[in-house]
Amino acid sequence: MIKLQKLPEVVDYLYKFQSELGFVHMHLALPREENKHLYIEKTKPGGKLTFAQNQVIENRVFTEQIKISIELPDGSIWVAVPMFTKGKLLGAIILSFNQVAPIAETTAWLEQHSEGLALAVEHTLHCEILEKQLREKSMQLVVMNALTSEKDYGQMFLTITAAINNMINCDLLTIPAFSPKTGFVLSGYNAMRQNGGFTLISREEMLEMLGLDLETYRQSAFSQLEIYSRPHIFTAEEYSELSRKLIVSNRFATVMGVKEALFVPIALPNDAFATLIVCSKKENSFFSKDLRILIELAKQITHQIGRLLTFEQKEVLEIKLRRENTLLIQELNQEQAFSEIIGRSPAIKKVLENVHRVAPTDSTVLLQGETGTGKELIARAIHNMSNRKNRPLIKVNCAALPAQLIESELFGHEKGAFTGATERRIGKFELANGGTIFLDEIGELPLELQSKLLRVLQEYEIERVGGKQTIQLDIRVIAATNRNLYQEAILDKFRMDLYYRISTFPFVLPPLRERREDIPLLVRSFIEKYSRKIGKGIEGVTPQMMDFLLHHSWPGNIRELEHVIEQAVILASGPQLDIVPAFTASASMATQKDIPRSLPVYLPQESANLTEIEDGFLESQRQHILKILEETGGRIRGRFGAAQRLGLKPTTLEARMKKLGIRKNFSSE
What we know:
This protein is α+β, with helices and mostly antiparallel strands and about 675 residues long. It has 26 helices and 22 strands. The protein starts with 6 loop residues before the first helix and ends in a 9-residue tail after the last helix.
């Protein structure tokens, strides 16, 4: 008996006689499940395989189980010689000839050696079946070890994917879950073949790649729920038909190139179930044995897959609850922003006009103003008037963040990322996803963190500390400072590129001394607030006190005024407030030097509209770039070039110069 270990070796053995037998093309066909055939074939050098030509003869030899010979319209002659072992059809050797070939001699040779060939094929099949069984057991062992010992759920899923791929060649593996109570949950566990290996794809990345939102994905899946609830092989033809009626399958086909898929449901508690979906970008990829392997695997891993999905749902729920809790606390502790902005002066009216104009956009806003001018109120007003008003507004006081924990606070961290990181933490940016993040006192951020913040604002994506997964963000950024960031950037105390990034729409909040006509309105509001809080019936202030309030310089602005009124209400013994001695003593010592210096001239405090603000800002950029170019002798690139001084890439600076009308010889057009 010919002793061979692999079916292709049988074909190689027969090809040794190709010159004597004179055939053009030969393959070994074996009957398999669902009337599919396993083809083991080879051509002579320069030959080309064509399945369509021998389809008729294959069907006949397996049906009639006798030697078949037919001539096709192209002039080729095809001969199929069946092989039997113990009276049972094992397979067939199929040859093609040209018209001058010794067909009779060749077929006689095959019939003479058919018994030996059949025994060789049978032995080889047994070897391959045994090897596949060992591989299947190995796969099950790898999967079980991963499910019981791997602590990182993402890595666990990748290990499972690699083990399945070792048995069933695939390009994509995903596990959507269905629950009658909570509805459809798009799993965050998706693995895709990339660069020769498998990469974990997050739920958000998967939706973005498919061009779908979560609700559309859910509706599409529920419209054909029975498809996900039964084991099935979707062949190329069936998957093409499925993609015509199911938008999810359509996107998998058109965007990711999926041609075939295996669906295997996994039962979960409370009538819920998940579906293990294995996809291939090639046709004729899956057989009944593959479906059987996954069904058996699904029975063994039901409990662990349930734990994996429960962990994922818990994580999603925790993030959702944190966001909702943050929003609820803000709503409980703070009234609607616009109702808190009090004033009728021209200065405050122009601020509110700008708020009305910029709020509906997603543009980044920079609020500059002295301490106590109400920057947080304006930020809240912008958020509440935007399309994001039903999503969270997350406030970050950059000055109050501990230096060693500031990155973790902003971007979050993974469990074990550093000493003390005993669990995963969601950062402020991730909490604000879908809503607005307010970066108060942004000028206090360390320079090393400013570069990371710049990347976030450019790419709108973050990575948790100690994490490898990129998280896409959909946020609106509002920054605030009481510093002159433009001057700080010139002095290299603040990154110039970050300054330009956050200054998409800058404006200044006027200090209280420039809107004195609003003081009586503010006083009345604070009296009502603290009279109600303390339980006193205060009706107003004495003329002497109002006169003093109107003429004070207010270096602490509205916050200082509020504290004065609160103190006066506490000390009041009658229906009207009088001057607080402690306040007048401190006020008399205040000098002009206590008043913060004015902010950059390109941010006009009296600007009437957005055009004036934008024009002023562009003119300031133009003048500053011209100044730096003059100092560098017109040099843009290099260690001491203008690009390095400005904290910009040379190409970015050149593009900005072109936009601002600055020639490379640094003259203004």
